[in-house]
């Protein structure tokens, strides 16, 4: 125990000043947003906050890992809570208990997100190269890029912005595997990113596959293969809590994916470099520091180590794939369009790699001519100024957008200026059809308007009471009532009408049906029960966490 205390004490003693700087810069990144007193509104803001509020409601009713949406998303029983990772929502739910003002909560989330990204990026880099200056500069340049600013604020894509926090952990975890057969950091990084965002998980695996091909000879070593298998096996166990319910739903139902009406086009090369060099908040950008990392690495190519040369080449490959140089049109009618949606999503890889190359090589440019501390200080100051400049441009571009003074209905270019605006966002009935059974898409109207149907489309209005509870009134006896609630094969429900458990079924549109409804007022409650496989996934998750904790103690506290 004394060894643990000593290790922790020494770590904070050595890095205390860096921690203070990270805290200070994180707070600075939130000042302009707090001062603006509004939150930029997008469709993703609505989507993610429906999920956040549904999770918050589920937790308040004792379900800490809900499978279906029973409170928000029109209380339709949508599978969006299982089909989309939700681990990244829990910290936001927790913060929402302490901060009631929405216009303050969002900037605070942004500040804490940046702080976490600084810490993980720094620790990941330093644990591999033992160079404080490079690690410090990398953490700042990577976290304060326009790409992360877009996903974190402008587009409000919680999945992408949170998953990008863990990409440095995966990169350096894999480098640690190549160098020392370490598997801990890679396991933590991959587990976290999978529990945040599926697509970025696939993209990072594609990157690792290419990186692995470059170093295939190293995997002739059995110990390296063993370490890789440990990482894969442990990651699968930890993330089973997500992918087992995910597979249950996909294998038992024909699930509709988010609609994609855009053409699959790469970025114009001129647009890419214009956006990057001007630090424009956009998905098609690798930032000023990324461009500098590319240029400097090419100029100093002979002085790069083997892995840096490989990362430079992989960066160039990913950039070329993202642009219109790559023939994206041939993939227009393939599954890749539905899965990827936008080729710009791939920029997360060159953004990561080029900012690392920038941090590694900017000191070589000045070498002994300028003190490295001066180079570091000036670089960080300029990066922070550019970041704040990008924030200012984004705030000015949205400042005069209309507040959301009526219920949200699938539109952008609005702002949230008060809790009443947020109420219009949170309590909108705008339908989220992602991950419906395909057959249910034909029933969007009755779901959106909370209508039960019987006898050739006669209708009864349902009143949503939250958490799977509904009130309705029937003027006659109804033999079979189709209710505005989605039925998923593979899920187990407990349906209670007026306090009594009843049988249920479903129609051809995958809507739940109940029989023999008497005339009068009724209370219907639908409870989603945990399946045996879901409970098994929790068990696998706990075992995976225990294995990981054991590995951490063996690596960092060997003297105990």
TrEMBL record:
Q: What is this protein identified as?
A: Membrane protein 6-pyruvoyl-tetrahydropterin synthase-related domain-containing protein
Mind telling me which residue stretches traverse the membrane in this protein? 16-34, 136-153, 160-177, 183-216, 228-248, 280-299, 311-330, 342-358, 370-389, 535-553
Q: Which organism is it from?
A: Apilactobacillus nanyangensis
Looking at the record's lineage, which domain of life comes first?
A: Bacteria
Key words, A-Z? Membrane, Transmembrane, Transmembrane helix
């Amino acid at each position: 125990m004394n060894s643990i205390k000593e290790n922790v004490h020494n770590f904070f003693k050595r890095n205390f000043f860096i921690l203070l700087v990270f805290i200070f810069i994180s707070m600075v990144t939130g000042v302009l947003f707090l001062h603006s007193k509004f939150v930029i509104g997008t469709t993703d803001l609505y989507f993610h906050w429906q999920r956040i509020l549904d999770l918050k409601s589920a937790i308040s009713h004792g379900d800490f890992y809900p499978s279906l949406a029973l409170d928000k998303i029109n209380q339709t029983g949508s599978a969006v809570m299982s089909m989309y990772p939700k681990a990244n929502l829990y910290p936001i739910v927790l913060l929402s208990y302490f901060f009631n003002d929405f216009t303050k909560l969002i900037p605070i989330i942004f500040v804490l997100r940046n702080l976490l990204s600084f810490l993980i990026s720094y620790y990941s880099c330093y644990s591999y190269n033992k160079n404080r200056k490079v690690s410090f500069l990398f953490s700042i340049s990577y976290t304060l890029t326009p790409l992360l600013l877009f996903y974190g604020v402008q587009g409000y894509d919680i999945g992408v912005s949170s998953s990008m926090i863990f990409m440095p952990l995966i990169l350096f975890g894999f480098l640690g595997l190549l160098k020392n057969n370490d598997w801990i950091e890679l396991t933590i990084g991959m587990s976290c990113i999978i529990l945040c965002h599926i697509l970025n998980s696939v993209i990072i695996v594609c990157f690792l596959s290419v990186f692995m091909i470059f170093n295939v000879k190293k995997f002739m070593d059995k110990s390296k293969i063993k370490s890789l298998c440990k990482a894969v096996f442990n990651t699968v166990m930890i993330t089973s809590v997500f992918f087992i319910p995910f597979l249950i739903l996909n294998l038992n139902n024909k699930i509709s994916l988010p609609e994609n009406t855009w053409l699959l086009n790469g970025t114009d090369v001129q647009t890419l470099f214009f956006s990057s060099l001007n630090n424009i908040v956009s998905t098609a950008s690798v930032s000023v520091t990324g461009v500098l990392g590319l240029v400097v690495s090419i100029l100093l190519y002979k002085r790069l180590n083997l892995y840096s040369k490989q990362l430079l080449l992989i960066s160039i490959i990913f950039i070329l794939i993202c642009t219109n140089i790559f023939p994206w049109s041939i993939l227009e009618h393939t599954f890749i369009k539905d899965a990827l949606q936008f080729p710009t999503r791939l920029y997360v890889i060159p953004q990561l790699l080029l900012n690392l190359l920038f941090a590694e090589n900017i000191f070589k440019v000045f070498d002994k001519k300028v003190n490295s501390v001066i180079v570091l200080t000036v670089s960080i100051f300029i990066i922070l100024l550019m970041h704040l400049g990008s924030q200012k441009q984004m705030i000015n571009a949205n400042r005069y957008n209309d507040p959301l003074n009526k219920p949200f209905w699938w539109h952008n270019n609005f702002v949230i200026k008060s809790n009443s605006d947020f109420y219009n966002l949170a309590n909108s009935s705008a339908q989220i059809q992602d991950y419906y059974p395909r057959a249910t898409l034909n029933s969007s109207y009755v779901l959106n308007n909370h209508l039960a149907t019987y006898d050739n489309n006669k209708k009864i209005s349902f009143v949503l009471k939250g958490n799977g509870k509904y009130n309705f009134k029937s003027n006659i006896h109804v033999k079979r009532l189709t209710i505005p609630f989605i039925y998923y094969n593979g899920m187990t429900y407990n349906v209670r009408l007026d306090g009594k458990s009843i049988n249920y079924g479903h129609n051809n549109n995958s809507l739940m049906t109940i029989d023999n409804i008497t005339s009068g007022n009724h209370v219907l409650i639908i409870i989603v029960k945990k399946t045996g496989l879901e409970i098994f996934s929790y068990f696998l998750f706990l075992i995976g966490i225990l294995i990981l904790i054991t590995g951490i103690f063996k690596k960092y506290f060997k003297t105990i």
